[in-house]
Amino acid sequence: MALINESHPEEFILLGFADRPWLELPIFIVLLITYPVAMMGNIAIILVSRLDPRLHSPMYFFLTNLSFLDMCYTTSIVPQMLFNLGSSKKTISYMGCVVQLYFFHIMGGTECLLLAIMSFDCYVAICRPLHYTLIMNQHICILLVSTVWLGGITYAVSEATVTL
Fold first, then answer.
1. Number of domains composing the chain
2. Would 45 disulfide with which of 33, 67, 135, 137, CB 3.0-4.6 Å?
3. How far is CA 15 from CA 77, 79, 84, 111, 119, in A?
4. Which residues contact 121 (CB under 8 A, 6 or more apart)?
5. Measured between alpha carbons, how far is 150 from 147 in angstroms, rounded to an integer?
6. Taking the model in full, what pTM does it have?
7. Residue closest to 17 by CA, chosen among 108, 90, 92
8. 8 in a domain, yes or no?
9. Using an 8 Å Cβ cutoff, are 158 and 117 in contact?
10. Domain for residue 42, yes or no?
11. How high does pLDDT run on average in the chain?
């Protein structure tokens, strides 16, 4: 007779700063200030690089995608942290935890791959300057970014599924 754990948690209790409750308010205030500032900074990078025609190059295309990715990354974590720090209810539902885990892995995997592509772009620009426009055209950049996002999603599905 095999023993199987058939329990399924409804929610998780977040301990966080249970032993240091005096840290909750300062961290809440810091996050409340830095989160909108980070969002505005990333939006500014996206707007400037999209609105200025002189910045329509592969480097700024990748930088725009990195800014968007950073917005998604912080949005997948910080609002839940703010909610938990600002309320007396220190729990997260099972599905909320699963969704947050998947998004965290998607954004993390995608960011790693995007940074690798950005380093390849710099390598081509420095080591092959005469071939740069042939190698890094708009079609290739879109294909690379699409592959990066697909790779991030694939990584998240494989990694987070094993975790659950």
1. 1
2. 67
3. 16, 17, 10, 29, 39
4. 58, 59, 62, 136
5. 5
6. 0.84
7. 90
8. no
9. no
10. yes
11. 89
Read off the tokens for 76.
């997948």
Q: What is the pLDDT of residues 22-46, one digit of tens each?
A: 888 898 999 999 999 999 999 999 9
Name the residue range of residue 57's domain: 22-163
- From the DSSP assignment, how many helices (H) and strands (E) are in the chain? 5, 2
Give residue-wise pLDDT tens across range 130-150.
Answer: 999 899 999 999 999 999 999
What does the alpha-carbon distance between residue 164 and residue 60 come to, in Å, rounded to a whole number? 37
- Round to whole Å and give the CA distance between 143 and 132: 16
**Which tokens belong to 143?**
């294909």
Residue 4 falls inside a structural domain? no
**How many whole angstroms separate alpha carbon 74 and alpha carbon 23?**
21
Task: Tell me the percentage of the chain whose pLDDT exceeds 90.
Answer: 60
For the chain (164 residues), the mean pLDDT of every run of 10, in chain order, is: 70 77 88 96 96 92 96 91 84 86 93 96 94 92 96 91 77
Tokens standing for residue 153: 């999603």
Query: 75: Cβ–Cβ under 8 A, 6 or more apart, which residues?
Result: 39
Are 37 and 71 in contact by the 8 Å Cβ rule? The answer is no
Q: Is residue 9 part of a domain?
A: no
Looking up residue 68, the CATH number of its domain turns out to be: 1.20.1070.10
